[in-house]
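Hello again,

I reread your note about wanting to compare the complex against the isolated chains. To keep things tidy I'm splitting this into two emails, and this first one only covers the full assembly. Below are the input lines as submitted, including protein chains and any nucleic acid or small-molecule components. They are followed by the predicted structure of everything together. The single-chain runs will come separately.
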Amino acid sequence: MLREASLGLARTFDTVSVVARHADALAASSGINPLSLDYSDSAALTRALRQAVETHGPVSLAVCWIHSTAPGALGLVAQELARPGEPARLFHVRGSAAADPSRLPRPGLDAVPEPVQYREVILGFIVEGERSRWLTNSEISSGVLRAVASDAARSIIGTVEPWHMRP
Ligand SMILES: NC(=O)c1ccc[n+]([C@@H]2O[C@H](COP(=O)([O-])OP(=O)(O)OC[C@H]3O[C@@H](n4cnc5c(N)ncnc54)[C@H](OP(=O)(O)O)[C@@H]3O)[C@@H](O)[C@H]2O)c1
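Full-complex prediction:
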């Protein structure tokens, strides 16, 4: 769902690395640096991020959509972003399928290291008259790019209100 967002970032930033189990497919035509791994493998994720920093320099922006099957991955990314004197922004994309995201507690980031600025992007839904629907991948990607551009602490793509109108 973040394919278009990844490609959009690749048009703006010198280097964009993408973590996915099959990242090569995205990288083939786009100049994206693929990090093909399972993010629930902490050692592999750490190794790949460090290698990317060694090759391309410090990461200034991370956009993370991480399933709950890897509860430690977000914190690990935050740790790897943290480099003294190198400000970095961490955009955490959060779904709204399970609970009202405007009431979600902050995720398992025990402490976001000092140079890292946490940003939240909540995936809402679209109300159309008396009905509602979930966001399309395209709406999610363009919403994430808008959130990055606005740099707000919290962005909501679509709406989460009224919550009882969710699909
Ligand atoms: N409002 C909302 O809350 C809302 C709206 C729309 C959609 N959604 C949700 O968004 C999701 C749609 O996402 P999607 O279709 O893009 O699929 P996805 O399963 O969430 O995968 C997203 C990306 O993450 C990668 N990925 C998944 N598991 C991984 C792992 N263990 N390690 C590394 N990379 C991993 C996938 O690539 P690989 O498969 O190559 O690893 C893919 O590039 C659905 O779950 C849908 O319910 C929510």
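For quick reference: The pocket of NAP is lined by residues 1, 19-22, 38-40, 65, 67, 70, 95-97, 123-125, 134-135, 140 (CB under 6 Å).

B.
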